[in-house]
Amino acid sequence: MDNLPQDARVIEQILHSMGIEEYDPQVLPQLLEFIQKYTSEVLEKAQKYAQHAKRNQIEESDVTLAITNQVAYSFQKPPSRKLLADFAKARNAVPFPQIRFKYGVHLPTEEYSLTNANYQIDEKYQEK
Question: Which Gene3D superfamilies does the annotation name (predicted)?
């Protein structure tokens, strides 16, 4: 793909360096859009921090603060392993309900059954 913009070629090289050889053609435009949006938001915040400090030029500290703020605002850290283990332990401590002994196929109650009618006919349209 020689007709790609320089930024798209860089993203393509990054993907290849990560071992990703096949991907949907829409991945490159989506990544480009994300990078452009993220970078512009960081630079806008950095500019506001510089203005707040009564400076005309953005400094490295402004960009660092803007990135820290953006990461804290935009991205959610996954829960810790300990928290997940505690949650799993509490959840697994609750036993399953007892299965009633009966012959035949065990079906859910009518309210949870997919064979139940999922519509209602208005009385004025019903045959009399």
Answer: Histone, subunit A (1.10.20.10)
